[in-house]
Amino acid sequence: VQLQESGPGLLKPSQTLSLTCAVSGCSITGNLYYWSWIRQPPGKGLEWMGTVTYSGSTYHSPPLKSHTSISRDESKNQFTLQLSSMTPEDTAVYYCAAGRRLQGSRWSDYEYRGQGTQVTVSS
Questions:
Q1: Strand ranges, E, within 10-66
Q2: Which of 64, 65, 79, 91 has the alpha carbon at shortest distance from 8?
Q3: Is 67 helix (H, G, I), strand (E, B) or coil?
Q4: With contact defined as beta carbons under 8 Å apart, do 120 and 9 qualify?
Q5: Which one, of 4, 32, 13, lies nearest residue 83 by Cα?
Q6: Cα torsion at 74, 117, 86, 53 (round to 10°)?
Q7: What pLDDT digit, counting tens, does each position of 2-34 carry?
Q8: Tens digits of per-residue pLDDT, 44-86?
């Protein structure tokens, strides 16, 4: 299973981030994995942001729920993250990952992950 994030690397405050995770080697609609977004701010630990299940249900981290949206495109076998009202505190490396848990804040909670994409929020 391979995952690859894509999206802009630099945004201004108040803009909306849109990231896509392309998945190969496994169908996102198969009853095998949960598909998650995680981020790691500089000098900090992993933060689970949200998950989309094989059936299309979505779960969001409560602190981020008000400005986070996760969706999927079954035809392209990919899932997306949108994070609105970005601030410099949202600067982080963003990862997509596959695991057998609905959420997790350790890499051991995931079986596969993308290489990560740096997102910087700066005016």
A1: 10-11, 17-24, 34-40, 47-52, 58-60
A2: 91
A3: helix
A4: yes
A5: 13
A6: 30
A7: 999 999 999 999 999 999 999 999 999 988 899
A8: 999 999 999 999 999 999 999 999 999 999 999 999 999 999 9
